[in-house]
Recover the amino acids of this structure.
C-alpha cells in the first residue's frame, strides 16, 4: 500500500510539474471548416498525428507564434510523428524547412514561412493542406531544452555518419563513427548545415539520428528505473515546451500507456521525399515538392499501410 501511495504521489508530482512549467497554445489549430476530417479505419480505430516544430530562442516568443500575427519566427525543424491506429510503430517524418508549398492566403512559399506569416494555426493549416491529414497535437520545442535533457540522461551515443567541423560554437570537430555527446555537442550536431555539401538534407538526417539515440537512451532501463532522473527530465525539459491545450498531462499519460510496447527498433525515421532543390520565380533557393510521394504518404497514413509505403518509397535513417 505504501509503495502504491508513493508511486501515485510521484506521478502526481510529475503531472503537476509538466502542467505548471510547460506553456500552452490556447489556439493552435485553424478554423474547423478548413481542416481535413479524421482518418478512421474500418474497425473504428484512428491513427494519431503530432506535429513537432523545433526552433530556438533567437525567434519570436511563443505568444507571437500562437497569435496568428506576422513575426520573424520560422521553424528550424519540422517533424510529423505518425502513430498508426494499432500503436505498434512510430513513424517520424522530417519535412524539409525550405519545401515549396502553397500557404493559404500567401501563395507559394517555403513551408517554414507559414509560422512567420500566421503563427501556429497557419502552420498547421499549411501542413494539413499539403498532406491532407489531420494534425491531432502540436509540440513546439525550443532546442536549447535538448541540451539539458541530453545532460540529464547522461549524454547520448550517436554514430556520426560524416566528419565535419561546425561553423560556430565551442565544438572543434565531429569525427566519423561512434561518439558520446553531451548537451553542447548534441546541440551543434543537430544544428550544423553549412559544413555539408547538401546542407539541410544532411542536417535533417543528423537530427533523425540524434532523436533516435535520445529515445533509445530515455527508453533504457537505467533511465526509466531511476525516479530522480525521470523527475529531472520532466522538470528540466518542460519549460522549453509549448503544446496545444489538449495535450495535458493526462493525455500524455494515456498516450504513453498506449505506446508502452514501443521499442527503439519500432521507431522509423525518414525524410519526406522531394524532387531535390531548385529556385523560385523570385530567386529563392528552395526544395521542390514531390507531390506524388506526398499523396502516397497521405494514403498510407489514412489506410494504415505505412510499412508498405516505407518499404517502397523512402530511405530510412538508421
Amino acid at each position: 500500500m505504501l509503495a502504491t501511495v508513493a508511486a501515485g504521489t510521484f506521478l502526481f508530482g510529475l503531472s503537476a510539474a509538466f502542467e505548471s512549467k510547460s506553456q500552452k497554445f490556447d489556439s493552435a489549430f485553424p478554423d474547423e471548416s478548413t481542416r481535413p476530417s479524421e482518418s478512421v479505419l474500418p474497425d473504428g480505430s484512428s491513427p494519431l498525428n503530432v506535429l513537432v516544430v523545433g526552433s530556438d530562442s533567437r525567434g519570436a516568443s511563443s505568444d507571437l507564434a500562437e497569435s496568428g500575427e506576422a513575426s520573424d519566427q520560422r521553424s528550424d525543424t519540422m517533424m510529423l510523428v505518425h502513430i498508426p491506429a494499432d500503436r505498434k510503430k512510430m513513424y517520424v517524418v522530417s519535412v524539409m524547412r525550405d519545401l515549396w508549398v502553397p500557404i493559404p492566403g500567401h501563395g507559394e512559399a517555403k513551408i517554414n514561412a507559414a509560422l512567420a506569416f500566421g503563427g501556429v494555426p497557419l502552420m498547421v493549416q499549411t501542413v494539413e493542406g499539403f498532406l491532407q491529414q489531420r494534425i491531432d497535437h502540436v509540440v513546439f520545442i525550443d532546442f536549447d531544452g535538448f541540451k539539458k535533457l541530453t545532460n540529464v540522461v547522461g549524454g547520448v551515443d550517436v554514430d556520426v555518419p560524416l566528419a565535419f567541423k561546425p561553423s560556430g560554437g565551442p565544438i572543434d570537430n565531429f569525427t566519423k563513427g561512434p561518439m558520446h555527446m553531451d548537451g553542447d555537442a548534441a546541440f551543434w550536431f543537430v544544428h550544423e548545415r553549412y559544413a555539408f555539401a547538401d546542407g539541410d538534407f544532411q542536417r535533417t538526417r543528423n537530427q533523425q539520428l540524434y532523436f533516435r539515440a535520445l529515445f533509445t537512451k530515455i527508453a533504457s532501463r537505467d533511465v526509466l528505473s531511476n525516479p530522480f532522473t525521470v523527475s529531472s527530465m520532466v522538470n528540466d525539459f518542460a519549460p522549453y515546451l509549448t503544446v496545444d491545450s489538449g495535450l495535458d498531462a493526462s493525455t500524455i499519460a494515456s498516450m504513453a500507456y498506449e505506446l508502452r510496447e514501443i521499442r527503439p527498433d519500432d521507431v522509423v525515421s525518414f525524410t519526406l521525399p522531394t524532387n531535390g532543390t531548385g529556385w523560385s520565380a523570385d530567386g529563392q533557393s528552395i526544395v521542390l515538392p514531390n507531390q506524388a510521394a506526398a499523396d502516397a504518404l497521405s494514403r498510407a497514413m489514412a489506410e494504415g499501410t505505412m510499412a508498405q509505403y516505407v518499404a517502397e518509397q523512402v530511405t530510412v535513417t538508421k
Q: What stands out?
A: Residues 2-21 form the longest helix (20 residues). The chain is about 40% helix and 20% strand. Confidence is low (pLDDT under 50) at residues 1-7. The first strand starts at residue 23 and ends at 25.
